Amino acid sequence: MSIGKVMVAGAGIMGSGIAQVCIEHGISTLLVDISKERADKGAANIEHFLQRKIEKGRIKPEEKEAALKLLKTSGNYADGKDADIVVEAATENMEIKQKLFAQLDETVNENAILCTNTSSMSITQIAGAARHPERVVGTHFFMPVPAMRLLEIIPGILTSEKTVEKAMEFGQMIEKVTVKAPDTAGFLVNRIFEPMRNEAIYLVMEGNSPEDVDTAMKLGCNWPMGPLELADYTGLDTLLASMTRICEETGDPKYRPCPLLKKMVNAGMLGRKSGRGFYEYE
Ligand SMILES: NC(=O)c1ccc[n+]([C@@H]2O[C@H](COP(=O)([O-])OP(=O)(O)OC[C@H]3O[C@@H](n4cnc5c(N)ncnc54)[C@H](O)[C@@H]3O)[C@@H](O)[C@H]2O)c1
């Protein structure tokens, strides 16, 4: 097995989900954020989700303990220099990601591959910040990471075949189904899915209630969650970043982010993570 240790950079919703899946599959994982405190917060979330799995009878307490033993946290990437794979799941911002990849490329051993979990940005552009772009690849996970089976693997223009193969191997190790996706805005899934959620927000802006829009899609299309519930769940800022990129890259006004989405993000209404979006959360 060529993957013994993973470093996850970014301990938010996605990073902690990715780290959880890794430790549940027996892989030593270092969870890193801008401070050790933030990384510890991510670890506390993992602990919470594993506890819930025990309560639902899905895992045994000893499995939780065994998984948590494989998890370490840090505020410093240098602690992960011996990792075989780095999965970056930091804030969706090109400047942050490029800085991070330039730094990771210098810090992590030369055999490691560097993956980004960006949902909307060009893998080729992120890789451009690294001295070795051939080892950079997109690994796009879906939320919630432990439950969603798909992993999109997105090669940039300079990504080597070896890097793609290692990313696929990683996907198999953590029991995800991998598909190769193009390095274009939205990759495969979001190119279809983000405009649908954006359209749902237009309907709210036009005076329809979020409850009606969500009920319509749940009962009319058999969706397990409504598009607005899902937008709240995954974060309105992430959706806005994604729509902005699809619109800019295609130059097609049909992808214009809904003005209400922009307003809500400007107001700090980011969905579940800020306590308020289309719905309110405790
Ligand atoms: N939320 C989703 O549904 C979803 C789905 C697929 C992909 N993504 C992508 O995953 C990434 C993370 O999204 P999220 O929803 O977990 O965001 P989040 O806001 O929950 O977490 C981002 C984390 O990154 C940390 N961070 C910022 N700069 C950093 C740096 N330089 N080094 C290390 N950590 C840093 C922040 O402190 C924060 O803890 C984004 O690129 C996003 O587009 C999100």
Which bin fits the share of residues in helices?
40-55%
Kindly estimate the percentage of residues that lie in beta strands according to DSSP.
Answer: 5-15%
- Biggest sheet, spatial arrangement of strands: 3-2-1-4-5-6-7-8
Please identify the structural class as seen in this structure.
alpha/beta
What does the largest sheet look like?
Answer: 8 strands, mixed
Overall pLDDT metric: 96
**Helical region count?**
11
Question: Tell me, what's the shape?
Answer: globular
- Which sequence of SSEs, written as H and E, runs from N to C? EHEHHEEHEHEEHEHHHHH
Enumerate the distinct ligands: nicotinamide-adenine-dinucleotide
How many DSSP E strands? 8
Task: Tell me the layout of helices and strands.
Elements (H helix, E strand, L loop, with lengths): L4 E5 L3 H12 L3 E5 L3 H20 L5 H9 L1 E4 L10 E4 L5 H14 L5 E4 L6 H5 L8 E6 L8 E6 L5 H13 L3 E4 L8 H17 L4 H12 L5 H8 L1 H15 L8 H8 L16
Parallel strand pairs: 1-2, 1-4, 2-3, 4-5, 5-6, 7-8
Antiparallel strand pairs: 6-7
Helix pairs in contact: 1-2, 7-9, 7-10, 10-11
Bound molecules: nicotinamide-adenine-dinucleotide.
The site of nicotinamide-adenine-dinucleotide has 25 residues, from helix 1 and helix 4.
